[in-house]
Amino acid sequence: MSASCGIAIAGGGLAGLAAANALKTFGIKAEVFEAAPALGEIGAAVNTSPQAVKALQAIGVGEKIAAVGHLSPGIYTRNMQTGEFLEFNDRFKMAERYGAPYYSFHRADLLDALASGLDHSAIHLAHRLTGIEERPDHTVLVFANGARVEAEFVIGADGVRSVIRQALYGDDNPTYTGQMVWRALLNANDVPSEVLEPTGHTQWVGPGCHFIAYYIRKRKFVNIVTQQDTDKWVEEGWSTRGDPDEMRLSFPNPEPRLAKLLSLVTECSKWGLFTRPLTQNWGRGRIQLIGDAAHAMLPNAGQGACQAFEDAYILARWLEACRDPVEAFANFRRVRIPRVHGVQRLSLSNAGFKHMRDSELQKESISAGTGSVHGNAEWVWGYDPLGEWDKAPLVPQVYAA
């Protein structure tokens, strides 16, 4: 079975569907090819900061995401063992300052919002990409179901294990960071309200670990995601089943609110955090990578999905502005790579504050305004993709190449 199309998007996750919406906004048709038999997204929650929300609004899904997003008043940070207040990151003020809200979503709701405005005849499910064949004037996508699709241009949004990336550049040789993540989802009715007071979005930090819990889906669920230093090898992945008792033992001597949350966990998953080199290998010629396929990053800055949404809007703008898509892809890489590399470096550095072994030094750093994980990211949140899509990005020297 063979077919042809102008632009093929490999991957129907958040990055791929955002790209399809963005292209549609500018009158550009694309076909989406997704490996799964139904649209779905592994994982419980995703956060979008103001600049990413602006990108989503610009591609026509603003009302849809507002209907399913949870507005977080802000992150209230406590010491993990004493419960002492350390910091409040006011997200309502952030929204007012940057002109767009900060949302927390159930991933499935966000994916549905992105899919709802697309022509579903252009979304091809059960198409697991197995390889590509580069030709001078097109690329052939080869799928496990026997289909072969000739595409004039390809957008690779096929995730951290991107088949397209591997075909272009070989293996990335990921390196284990010595950190792992636990994830759990609780029914909010089972969680006493005082546990997450006063904002419903609480972070606990302690020696070698941190723990975040917040409401999603209009306060129906509480999402939990943690991170800890460990000398144990942990498999990379999103859905490795974990042991709740082992999860609880990872956070010794928790203060009462955190202890109550941990006691409620009956199912959890875990995965190891791996880094990949920061490279310029985002695509070539007729092929452009976006999202995790181009720039997988650690979760410490909450920017994985956000940078994918920036990618989607800015790539569509360049495709609309340039007669030659190959030129558009090259311009996209020119303006995006420096900014995203800066965000990746920010993600790497944030874990240092959250996992400080000296609690008093951690507290002093917050008070001085120098050690806070939230105090050095305004250049990320304050970015305006609509007005700056074609400009060299401003990246603080500490995060620049």
Task: Write structural notes for this entry.
This protein is of the alpha+beta class and 401 residues long. It has a domain at 2-42 and 108-173 and 277-399: FAD/NAD(P)-binding domain (3-Layer(bba) Sandwich), CATH 3.50.50. It has 14 helices and 19 strands. The chain has helices at residues 14-25, 50-58, 62-68, 91-98, 107-116, 163-169, 244-249, 256-263, 292-295, 304-321, 325-354, 359-368, 378-381, 385-388; strands at 2-10, 31-33, 45-48, 70-71, 74-79, 85-90, 103-106, 123-124, 129-134, 139-143, 148-156, 175-187, 201-206, 209-216, 221-229, 240-242, 268-275, 283-284, 287-289. The strands form three sheets. Strands 1, 2, 8, 9, 10, 11, 18 and 19 form an eight-stranded mixed β-sheet that branches. The protein has an eight-stranded mixed β-sheet with strand order 6-5-13-14-15-12-17-16. Helix 1 (14-25) links the parallel strand 1 (2-10) and strand 2. It is globular, with a radius of gyration of 21 Å.
Name the assembly state.
Answer: single chain
Give the CA-CA distance, first to last residue: 46 Å
The helix count comes to: 14
- The assigned structural class equals alpha+beta
Full CATH superfamily name of the domain at 2-42 and 108-173 and 277-399: FAD/NAD(P)-binding domain
* Secondary-structure arrangement, i.e. CATH architecture of the domain at 2-42 and 108-173 and 277-399: 3-Layer(bba) Sandwich
CATH topology value of the domain at 2-42 and 108-173 and 277-399: FAD/NAD(P)-binding domain
Tell me the β content: 25-35%
Shape descriptor reads globular
Total beta-strand segments: 19
Proportion in helices:
25-40%
Low-confidence stretches: none
Average per-residue pLDDT, rounded, comes to: 91
Roughly how many Å is the radius of gyration? 21 Å
Main sheet record = 8 strands, mixed
What is the CATH C-level name of the domain at 2-42 and 108-173 and 277-399? Alpha Beta
